[in-house]
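User:
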Amino acid sequence: MRQDRRVASASEGIIEELIWRGLIAQSTDLEALTKATKSPITLYCGFDPTAPSLHLGNLVQILTIRRFQLFGHKPLALVGGATGLIGDPKQSGERTLNSKELVTEWVERIRHQLTQFYSFEGANAAEVVNNLDWTADIGILEFMRDIGKHFSVNRMLDREAVAARLAKDGISFTEFSYQLLQSFDYLQLFKRHGCVLQTGGSDQWGNITAGVDLVRRVEQQSVHALTTPLITKADGTKFGKTESGTVWLDSELTSPYAFYQFWLNADDRDISSLLRIFSFKTRSEIEALEAQTIEKPQERAAQRALAQELTRLVHGKAECEAAEAAGRALFGGGELAELPEATISAALTEASLGEVASSEVVDGLLPPLDELLVRAGLSPSRKAARRTIAEGGAYVNNIRVEQEDYQVPAGDLLYGSWLVLRRGRKAFAGVVVK
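Assistant: Predicted structure:
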């Protein structure tokens, strides 16, 4: 785990910290949990392998249990090798069941992702566990007799996702039984690790409290549940989504440049809550950044600070520096030739990318610049592009071009393939020769 500048002790109060950050949506008994966390406890959060990578929605949970560890508690990050074979019911319809081989592959990838966020040393060393370990060998008759008997079908039908599916197309017994499996996880982690708290998103409240109830029925012990609120942006759109899709934690699915830009482009109306939810900065540091946003919003100091912190955390210092360098270079503040090709490719793909066939490169020259500006999406027409060039607003690899019939020499292509085009100071796009 990359170390934070601030490491707290359990006596400072993790629950008070979460309340201040707006990270508590529901709790079984907040007063009792506050008292319990005055001493170190063991807690867990589950992550199902429904994709080859975790995403920003998962990051809320990842960082929440990381906060518990920084306050002296022991986190268990559970990867659902068993529950991932079933799938939590969605309101939109039945999940596609992935093969055992694919789920196994995704389990390993997600396990590796989780290891970078926690400390695995000391008295409160984190553990990554897989629920397939205690589910694979249990027989169906044993499970139904010992676990199923504790569940009320009436209560299970009340769950929002289940009710929505029943009102629409119905639900399979496979997905309907998911709640039993997640509850069984809590029971097993209580027995094996003394785990007394499960956290998750507020959409998991029904599953989590079902686990609390199962522990009470089987072990006659009280345990806790805590959920975080679902995050939406000020404009009403879903958090963690962009025009190009989900923001993943895997650099192969979302480049470090795109990840950095996601935070840098955060709406001023959202940045205060995003700092509290995702940053490990202190209250005074966050309040100072909030004040800067109000006084000098054009500087985007809060967005930049959050982008730096999270890109370093998820992708490492070197990738964060490369993403920052790319941002400067693409807007004329640095050397494009010094950027790695992968960074240029990711940045231009994220912005807008036009294509030129290699057959269109004639006598060492690309098609006219006005045509390239149109292909890259920087101008609606060649006439408008020529006007931009004539007015001095067109740039090729950060060099201003004022000749309307200008053709770019193939030798100017970065890495023999890429061209960075810019209209004015803020609009950039690219061209790739294939």
